[in-house]
Amino acid sequence: MAIVVKGADVAGSIKEDIRVRITELEKNGKKPKLMMISVGDDPANASYERGILKVFGELGIETEKTVLDAGISQEGFDEAFTGVNEDSSITGILVFRPLPKPLSIEFAAKTIDPRKDIDCMGYYNQAALSMGRKDCYYPCTAEAVIRFLKYEKIDLAYKNVVVIGRSIVVGRPLVSMLISENATVTCCHTKTRDISDRISNADIVVTAAGSRALLKGEMLKNASPNLFCIDVGINMREDGKGICGDIDFETVEPLCEKITTVPGGVGSVTSTLLAEHVVRGAEQM
Amino acid sequence: MAIVVKGADVAGSIKEDIRVRITELEKNGKKPKLMMISVGDDPANASYERGILKVFGELGIETEKTVLDAGISQEGFDEAFTGVNEDSSITGILVFRPLPKPLSIEFAAKTIDPRKDIDCMGYYNQAALSMGRKDCYYPCTAEAVIRFLKYEKIDLAYKNVVVIGRSIVVGRPLVSMLISENATVTCCHTKTRDISDRISNADIVVTAAGSRALLKGEMLKNASPNLFCIDVGINMREDGKGICGDIDFETVEPLCEKITTVPGGVGSVTSTLLAEHVVRGAEQM
What we know:
Chain A is α/β, with parallel strands linked by helices. Chain A has helices spanning 7-27, 46-59, 74-86, 106-111, 123-130, 140-151, 171-180, 195-198, 249-252, 270-284, and strands spanning 3-4, 33-39, 62-68, 92-95, 160-164, 184-188, 204-207, 228-231, 235-236, 243-244, 258-259.
């Protein structure tokens, strides 16, 4: 039976560290603070925001939200963004995206203070990430995967990792981060000939495709017996009752050494990483 | 016997296209112009510069070079860079890097006009590349690999590509570009357990490690019979007489369908791509 690596445990260890760092900041008279920026009030963001408020509340990190008029002009948005960007009491900025059309994120992405760019929306951090620099912020969901591996004390040198999915927010940055961590990485996607063949000799498989039961046990015939399967997918369950990941848990679990679940896995670590980034922002100011 | 795909042929087809586009630009009263910026006069850049001048001369594209004092201050460099960046007669900028210490490229990377950033040194283009956007400039050497594949009319969907090397200028951007082109990509490097295992079922192998005879015939046992091997490496030959690539040509050539050589391969296309970018810069102005 595989060990289920729990998001709550990974998040818990990060929170412990965050608490120490907040105490340290307080000694120096510094205070982390998150500003969320939303244009209009998209209900799609509600559950994400609730998750953030819960974690930040638990850690005692201040949050504020700027809700801009749904019909705001580009100049108005850029001006409001600049105000937040230049406010020295704000140590992290989260813009709920995508912005309603025809607003563009361009100006914000170009000008955001890299130290406040906690969700890696700015060109500087995206460029730094793609160049393999480790002093930048990573997109939280992709970083959460790395944190699961670190929590399990896995050294990625000489390990084969398969990432299924090539999205801008998870698959692509994850490939870059894993290469920086010395993993040998294969990126599979909808145009891959034979994913099970690409998984041969894999030590770690990460599913981030958003496709229910994408990874099945029969695909793991030639994978390592010490396989770790990490599920980043979020899909509606077939019966409509809640969410599930990309991994067909029933058939995959018996064939690997470690596995994560959805819910209860990667998704439950992202808000904690956002909090960590806001604290890091404060440390850098 | 493998077909040797020649850099001169690939460059030739790009030059043909460039000539048509320059004629088109002239009709609209536009003119491409490259500005090279060098701090001091590093002899390491001499052969690169000679190659550029040869290609640009052949195509009739104007070039100019700004040589800044080796002891220039950061402010002085940034100011000189801004002058070139804002000069509307310049449609492409090439800064010879690395800059001598302690000069930083930071300001230039942040402010360069994306349309003039022909060598992908700016954050905007690096970010766009990593996000899989195709409207940006790619680093020329990595792009040259893609052009060899396009010249051979290879559709990368459902193809397995192995990239050996993870440098900032070739390996990493190439991985990102290949994913955008629908290839299933594996990135191997010095911390890869067994490169020959990772090559199993590969359709294309790109060597960009800078390590003589890194890829040997014995490593290709399970690769596709239609294998295309592309060599980006540049190394001194063992006998000291000239350069060679990363591929052990003698043992690899009999086992693949197509192959490139060093010299005469990828390296001979990069200056032509730089010219293409300067022309594209002019088209966007």
